[in-house]
Specification:
The protein is of the alpha+beta class. The protein contains 16 helices and 19 strands. The protein has three domains: 97 residues; 104 residues, D-Maltodextrin-Binding Protein, domain 2 (3-Layer(aba) Sandwich); 248 residues, 3-Layer(aba) Sandwich (Aminopeptidase), CATH 3.40.630.190. The strands form six sheets. Strands 16-11-6-7-8-17 form a six-stranded mixed beta sheet, sandwiched between helices. A five-stranded mixed beta sheet has the order 3-2-4-1-5, sandwiched between helices. Strands 9-10 form a two-stranded antiparallel sheet. Helix 1 runs parallel beside helix 3. The longest helix is centred in the first third of the chain and has 36 residues.
């Protein structure tokens, strides 16, 4: 009997030892993660560490007490501490994973379509065996597409000087198929619906392209900086190449606690790189570096970072923040049957998206839409910087998983949040909208006909440059 009693005691001691070891390991891992993330002020981290250390010290004493009641209490609260620590570690791990994806997405996806006439009998890439596909842009991307296509069928290629020439051959039935990138199909749909209806896609190839590091890194808690926000006109994968329907420069001065939001019309006719002139919205088709080049040249500024979002981002962020409130200048109804009355509006995600997308039912067209977009951006910033949402920033980041990408460093993001938690800054937010005049020009992306563009107003641009300099000085 005595041996059995001694064996039970040994087993209980072993259980207490195991619980204590796990307790110490989880404690060290948890505070190691907190120190690595550096999102909690170091003084608070130190205080929490000392309090937790004292608590664990007493738990260990209880775990190895000779009194059964003390051991049970120690084991019980040790298990509670372990469970809570594991939950927090999972929470932090998910945040790290999210930020890794959001801050390391320096690539773009291009989807190339094998396009045939909609009334043809071709339904699959194999139906084009030994037939010609028209291509017009022989570069490394096209060669990669050809390699992938050649694995699916035995194809021949005919090179043309332009997309329009290849498309004409297809429409005249002198060519079986052509290769078009997704955004180029969208251009055809936007500018020539009749032609678009005559086309169908029978195969698609996705290509991943690395983009250069285009940031000018600084400490955003100490130095003034510019962030370029671009919103692409798609749902789904944020790295997909598409037109940039929203183009906003956010200038921030952390010392003055001032933010200037400068909205640039999507149809502004600009140099989108050193050899191409096009609408700003089309710059996004060739990579975000082209959009950044165009905006930096226009406003004569250095852009430190970018944030790329899509339509999915708007819906998720607004809903997570509990909605936003904006003032609407006029009553209008959108194409998706949302009616917005004049006055203060509280918008959910879907409503906010409809509000910022409409340009056909608001005064000023795209300029009117620009005003609404800046209102929503301002409301989002105010909500996101509120204490209730800063405390839930982890949840905000996890909700945004896959809907935005930035080249800002993780450390800068954490330090900014930490700074706001320590000392709530009284941010003053100002908005500015660039204007221009209507015109028609040939563009790089549509070279066979003139299309609508907005020619920048020189006075408006000069005024914007001066406002940005004043904010950043």
């Amino acid at each position: 009997m005595e041996n059995i009693h001694n064996n039970k005691k040994k087993k209980k001691r072993i259980v207490s030892k195991v619980i204590t070891i796990v307790l110490l390991i989880t404690f060290l891992i948890l505070f190691g993660m907190l120190l690595y993330l550096n999102v909690i002020p170091i003084l608070y981290t130190f205080i929490i560490f000392l309090l937790a250390l004292v608590f664990i010290f007493f738990l260990v004493l209880f775990n190895f007490s000779k009194r059964k009641g003390f051991r049970l209490i120690g084991n019980f609260f040790s298990l509670i501490f372990i469970i809570i620590s594991i939950i927090i570690m999972i929470y932090l791990y998910n945040t790290l994973g999210f930020l890794y994806k959001a801050t390391n997405g320096h690539y773009m996806l291009k989807n190339y379509n094998v396009v045939v006439l909609s009334d043809s009998n071709y339904e699959d890439i194999k139906d084009l065996d030994n037939k010609k596909i028209g291509i017009y842009n022989v570069d490394d991307n096209i060669k990669d597409v050809q390699k992938k296509l050649n694995k699916k069928a035995s194809l021949q290629y005919q090179t043309f000087e332009s997309r329009e020439e290849a498309l004409t051959k297809l429409l005249n039935n002198t060519l079986e198929a052509i290769l078009l990138e997704n955004s180029e199909l969208s251009l055809i749909e936007e500018n020539d619906q009749e032609t678009f209806n005559k086309l169908k896609t029978i195969a698609q190839i996705e290509i991943t392209i690395d983009i250069s590091n285009i940031k000018n890194a600084i400490d955003i808690n100490k130095e003034p900086f510019n962030i370029f926000i671009t919103g692409i006109d798609t749902y789904g994968d944020i790295n997909a190449v598409s037109r940039s329907d929203v183009n906003i420069l956010v200038s921030v001065n952390p010392k003055k606690e001032k933010i200037l939001i400068t909205w640039i019309p999507r149809d502004y006719y600009l140099d989108i790189n050193k050899s191409m002139k096009d609408k700003l919205t089309h710059a996004g088709m060739y990579g975000i570096e082209n959009s950044i080049y165009a905006v930096s040249q226009l406003l004569n500024v250095k852009i430190n970072y970018y944030v790329k979002v899509n339509f999915t981002s708007v819906v998720k962020v607004v809903d997570l923040l509990g909605g936003i409130t904006v003032y609407n200048d006029e009553t209008f109804t959108t194409n998706d049957n949302f009616t917005f009355r004049k006055g203060n509006l509280t918008l959910n995600g879907e409503e906010a998206l409809s509000f910022v997308r409409d340009r056909k039912h608001v005064t000023g067209g795209d300029l009117g839409r620009g005003k609404n977009q800046t209102k929503v951006i301002k409301a989002l910033i105010n909500e996101a910087l509120s204490k209730k949402n800063l405390k839930n920033y982890n949840k905000l980041l996890n909700t945004l998983d896959g809907t935005f990408v930035t080249n800002m460093e993780q450390s800068n993001i954490f330090n900014f949040v930490k700074r706001e938690l320590i000392k709530r800054r009284n941010w003053q937010i100002e908005t500015n909208i660039l204007t221009g005049t209507d015109g028609r020009e040939y563009t790089y992306s549509i070279s066979n006909q003139t299309v609508y563009v907005m020619l920048p107003d020189e006075e408006s641009v000069n005024n914007a440059q001066n406002k940005i300099k004043e904010i950043l000085s």
